[in-house]
Amino acid sequence: MGILRLSHVEVRVPDLELATAYYTEVVGLYETAREQDRVFLKCWDEQQHHSVILTSEPTYGLNHMGWKVRYREDLDYYTDRLAKAGVDVIRYAAGEIGPGHGEAIRFTLPSGHVMELVYGMQIVGNLLPLVNPPPKPINMVGFAPPRLDHIFITCEDVAGNTVFLQEVLDFHLTEQVVGDDGFQVATWLERSHHSHDIALVTGKDRGLHHFAFWVDDWTAIRDTADVLAYHGVPIETNPTRHGATRGHCIYFFDPAGNRNEAFTGGYQVDPEEPPITWTEAEMGRAIFYYDGVVDQHFLTVHS
Ligand SMILES: [Fe+2]
């Protein structure tokens, strides 16, 4: 029981049509529902109704992140845990938040980020038949990631928010950058037994550093770069490798300024395994293993 994985992100975009065109034609997501101010999208291999919500607002950044729980009872369980931690929780019936949405609870992390746990989002199916399916659909557009992977947020108190995720929401710390003063500068945590589902880095509260789409291998990272360059999308970091998580990655921006990543690799992990630690002197290598440095631009949060 408990939290299974990142379910969806809701990001602000000032130009809903431009952002929708980018996420459908360059990324290759599929539109599953539309309202006047919101567009709901999913990756091709996802069964659930949506994993990305674009909301028309004058700014950009993260409105909320949703996490999938296995059972309805998980919503009760975490409502109780959060209440004991002094956190207010709002409960929503299925469909109350939006089309296809399941039952949910919403609350605010110490960092100010709005977090949601959702049970029973509508299953719309992926783009493959359930009997004798081919490995992937034919004629997809964009770099066509099969699924959403993780989110990276910023906050002033990385250590405090990391403890909250561990002690109240049962996340498992897999990696950390510890500063020379002994405080955590960045942390990576998981629920899905992969290297990370969420990461935190020191910065302003409520900030979105990026959210990432999974792609299947290193070659797909190259293909992503080909698609982005063809469409003139600003690539911030060319294909490379992380030290922390060991993943392969490429960073770029949507038309609103939200940072996106295509990610693959990493490792599998059991919940009782101790975290890997990176020292402050090696933080550059933790983020970009080959360059060994993180430029100031990458640490700038565009939200
Ligand atoms: Fe990432």
What features would you describe in this structure?
With 303 residues, this protein is α/β, with parallel strands linked by helices. It folds into 2 domains: 3-119, 2,3-Dihydroxybiphenyl 1,2-Dioxygenase, domain 1 (Roll); 147-299, 2,3-Dihydroxybiphenyl 1,2-Dioxygenase, domain 1 (Roll), CATH 3.10.180.10. Helix content is 19%, strand content 37%. The chain is built from 6 helices and 17 strands. The strands form 2 sheets. The protein has a 9-stranded mixed sheet with strand order 14-15-16-13-9-12-11-10-17. Strands 2-3-4-1-5-8-7-6 form an 8-stranded mixed sheet, with helices on one face. A hairpin with a 7-residue loop joins strand 11 and strand 12. 44% of the residues are buried. The model has no long low-confidence stretch (mean pLDDT 96). The structure holds fe (ii) ion. Fe (ii) ion binds at residues 150, 152, 210, 212, 261, 263.
List the helices and strands and how they pair.
Elements: E1 3-13, H1 16-27, E2 30-34, E3 38-42, E4 52-56, E5 61-69, H2 72-84, E6 90-92, E7 103-108, E8 114-119, E9 147-155, H3 158-167, E10 172-178, E11 184-190, E12 198-202, E13 207-214, H4 218-230, E14 235-241, E15 247-253, E16 259-265, E17 276-279, H5 283-287, H6 296-299
This protein binds fe (ii) ion (FE2).
